Write the structure tokens for this entry.
Amino acid sequence: MAPDYRTPTIGVLALQGDVREHLQALESVGARATPVRRPGELAGLDGLVLPGGESTAIVKLATIFELVEPLRAALAGGLPTYGSCAGMILLADRIEGGIAGQTTFGGLDMTVRRNAFGRQVDSFEADLDLSGVDGGRVHAVFIRAPWVEALGDSVEVLARVEGGVADGRIVAVRGGVDGQLLATSFHPELTGDTRVHALFARIVRERA
Ligand code: GLN
């Protein structure tokens, strides 16, 4: 039987971070969601989520589990992937403010600044206009979040912070070879609003 692409299979990298919340959000937008801890579990995925957590810890564990090269290859091969917060850092080709020698999986031609918002607004919430998401502004939760410092032509800005000290900072983008990569500085998996996951599932279905 042919696979049913209305129910795409989307993996969540399950090394560290808020894996369970992403699995639930993906199921609620009609995907089959599955944790990924081993290279073999990348096979057969229609899409992948890199969760929020701690980017340095995720890369360290991915190295131990021999996932770094398989993940880079999957991303370079066009696997639709969504990264939130630490996941956004992991999708960036370049980091500012990383620990010495910190690497990423890459895919998005951009520079992210890690822990960008600084002490006073370490964690905060804001309502954003998010391009590609209908039904009103998205309530965004930022936790020691990165922002996008610079981007290449292949990366499109979907949202910026409005007002306050971080006014105008880029916090959501889409890019890659054909728009298959999505990244947000914030954590939609924590708010119960599944519209960002629905957008990602749409990106996955279009390519499955
Ligand atoms: N500051 C974290 C990092 O550098 C990201 C925080 C998050 O994912 N909530 O990876």
In short: The longest strand covers residues 108-113. The first helix runs from residue 19 to 28. Residues 9 and 44 are 8 Å apart (CA to CA). The chain has a mean pLDDT of 95.
